[in-house]
Amino acid sequence: MTANEPLLRAENVIVEYGTKRNPNRVLHEVSLEVGAGECVGLVGESGSGKSTLGKAVLGLVPVAGGKITFDGRDITHLKGQARRDLASDIQVVFQDPYGSLNPKMTVGEILSEPLSTAGTDRATARGIVGEMLERVSMPASVIDRYPSEFSGGQRQRIAIARALVRKPRLIICDEPVSALDLTTQATVLDLLIDLQRETGVSYLFVSHDLGVVRSICHRVAVMYRGNLVEVGDGDAVTRSPQHPYSQRLLAASPVADPILQAARRDEWLALRERQAASA
Ligand code: ADP
Ligand code: MG
């Protein structure tokens, strides 16, 4: 990677659903970069195309135009084994902590699967799984238990541990805390921030919640009907957005009320202090 090359670069990416004869274009030449160790937020109302951009990076939807590079390498149309190999660099954490973990597998099996797929031997895999569970503050004893035995927040920790076992350089976080209550959101966001600090992993962080994005992202991009309308410093975009659509998004945000917002931030800070004190 050259000094100026971002880790992830999407250039004029077009994605269309529907049929060839009747295409429904949902991404219109979207360009976005994520640097090494950076967290870039992608906000916008439901249906604006945020998840579709994440899926395009992951190769889960075909890209009809433009280019996606990772570490300078063109990954736009990677398929088969080449695409599967990319899982050692790019991982994902989805919103739904109930649907994203196979209920028939133990936590140990869930976490070691990406490693056995990569050909890691069992003893090494066991060591890595233990290390990752510790990283997400789950006791080693959980390996023999099933996802149904855990709360939403604990399941998201397990999903994060699974994303980490191959030591990726980028994690696509698609609404990773949206299904969680406020207190649990704060603890999972803190975990993601700590992990980024420790490992230098990059995040493309998809969320409809400006408050969440503000607390974790260095830069923020605002998507409106498949177009990026504003990209900038996280604090600036989430506090004083320039584009009319971003301003509307801020106004419609459930925490747009400045008093509420301040209270929520204080709540987070207090929680963080309590955690630091008890650590
Ligand atoms: P967001 O994540 O911002 O809520 P999505 O990327 O999921 O938005 O969806 C963008 C648009 O694409 C929406 O209009 C949605 O209805 C449509 N869409 C998403 N997935 C599919 C699909 N698999 N087939 C057809 N249309 C889809
Ligand atoms: Mg989505």
Structural class: alpha/beta
Please provide the count of β strands: 10
Number of helices: 10
Molecular shape: globular
What integer is the average pLDDT?
90
Q: H/E element string? A: EEEHEEHEHHHEHEHEEHHH
Question: Strand share of the residues?
Answer: 15-25%
Q: What small molecules does this complex bind?
A: adenosine-5'-diphosphate, magnesium ion
The amount of helix comes to 40-55%
Which consecutive residue ranges, at least 5 long each, have pLDDT under 50?
none
Distance between the termini: 37 Å
Output the radius of gyration. Answer: 19 Å
The major sheet is characterized as:
6 strands, mixed
Account of the 3D structure:
The chain has helices spanning 50-58, 80-85, 107-117, 122-135, 152-164, 182-199, 210-216, 234-239, 244-252, 258-278, and strands at 8-18, 23-34, 39-43, 65-70, 73-74, 90-93, 170-174, 202-206, 219-224, 227-233. Helix content is 41%, strand content 23%. The longest helix is centred in the C-terminal third of the chain and has 21 residues, at 258-278. The chain has a domain at 243-279. It starts with 7 loop residues before the first strand and ends with a helix. Helix 3 (107-117) crosses helix 4 (122-135), helix 3 (107-117) packs parallel to helix 5 and helix 4 packs across helix 5. It has a six-stranded mixed β-sheet, sandwiched between helices. It is globular. It has ten helices and ten strands. With 279 residues, the chain is of the alpha/beta class. The chain binds adenosine-5'-diphosphate and magnesium ion. Adenosine-5'-diphosphate binds at residues 17, 26, 44, 46-52.
